[in-house]
Amino acid sequence: MSFIGEEIARQPQAWLKAATAASGSADLLPRPGERVAVVGCGTSWFMAEAYAALREARGLGETDHFAASEFPHERTYDRLVAISRSGTTTEILELLDRRRGRYPALALTADTSTPIVDVADHVLDLSFADERSVVQTVFATTALTALRAGLGEPVEPLAEAARTALDAPLPEEWVTAEQITFLGRGWAHGIAREASLKMREATQSWTESYPSLEYRHGPISIAAPGRLVWHFGPDAAGLRADVAPTGALFVDHPEDPQADLVRVQRLAEAAAVRKGLDPDRPRALTRSVILDRPAS
Ligand code: F1P
Questions:
Q1: 89 Cα–ligand 1 center, Å
Q2: Degrees (nearest 5) of the Cα angle 127, 191, 71?
């Protein structure tokens, strides 16, 4: 089995550990009412987006998310949360360093032997979810689970839903799809962007992602037979009916979008193998982007 296959499969157990880690570090996590910014790069940014939208939707305080390279340094927050599996991503380290002394920062990382521990004020150690594959799966969803647990969400049903997604069949028409567009509303949009990136990283294929209601504003024009439209969360906007005449296949599942993402991770691995690619060795990617000059 590939590394990524093993890492995808161990998500339910890692999510349960994340709940324990979060409850042991509750005082480090954002408190109700705080203005919070959440940052990351790549996959970690999309997890930041999902968490930010969830926290704000729950009325727990204004929560912004940014790609670390696009952070508005002139703003002030009550707390910064940085997500970085490697703990070495240049844009994250620079951002954490630059805000020092202004407001506190918590880093979620899988490697506490890296420079991120020197530039953050607090660290949530998720090393039990570290990965061998370059393409992130278990670390990303485990970081999101820890943050969701900090919002008071129960993790056991989420882990159970992931088990369902791990056992579900992967239809042939998904594996051979020529193109996939991922959609989601609210926090599920962050999941849609991550699903889209996962497919691109592992399979070098054409994917897109949009907020659900943006789909009718142009992107639907590429729906066609042999292509998929994958909706995370309930299709309350009735998009299925609009996609039907295009001949594209509309896919949605009742599970929590984070658990449904597990299906897409499995699909990414299966489609990569089908194309003769090694999903553990994505083209032009490295575990971490470390720049030899300042990012800003
Ligand atoms: C973030 C990241 C990954 C991406 C690639 C490069 O790393 O952008 O999402 O897949 O491997 O690094 P990190 O800051 O979470 O370590």
A1: 7
A2: 75
Q: What is the pTM of this model?
A: 0.97
pLDDT digits (tens, 9 = 90+) for 259-294: 999 999 999 999 999 999 999 999 989 899 999 878
How far apart are alpha carbons 83 and 65 in whole angstroms?
A: 11
Q: What is the pLDDT of residues 223-248, one digit of tens each?
A: 999 999 999 999 999 999 999 999 99
Locus of tokens 């349960």: 16
Q: Point out the ligand 1 atom lying closest to the alpha carbon of residue 89.
A: 14
* Distances from the Cα of 260 to the Cα of 88, 127, 231, 263, 276, angstroms: 29, 24, 10, 5, 25
The number of domains in the chain is 2
Q: Is 31 in the pocket of ligand 1 (CB under 6 A)?
A: no
Model pLDDT for residues 105-120, shown as the tens digit of each residue? 999 999 999 999 999 9
Query: Residues 138, 173: one domain?
Result: no
The enclosing domain of 51 has a CATH number of 3.40.50.10490
Q: Which ligand 1 atom is at minimum distance from the Cα of 286?
A: 11
Residue 89 CB less than 6 A away from ligand 1: yes
CA distances, 38 to each of 188, 198, 291 (Å): 16, 21, 22
Task: Give me the phi and psi of 54, to 5 degrees please.
Answer: -65, -45
Distance (Å, whole) CA 140 – CA 198: 11
Residue 287 included in any domain: no
In this structure, the answer to whether residues 218 and 120 fall within a common structural domain is no
Angle between the N-to-C axes of helices 11-24 and 156-167, in degrees from 0 to 180, rounded to the nearest 10: 170
Does the C-beta of 43 come closer than 6 Å to ligand 1? Answer: yes
Instruction: Judge if 94 and 182 occupy the same domain.
Output: no
> Alpha-carbon dihedral of residues 6, 25, 116, 5, nearest 10 degrees?
10
- Å from CA of 86 to ligand 1 middle: 7
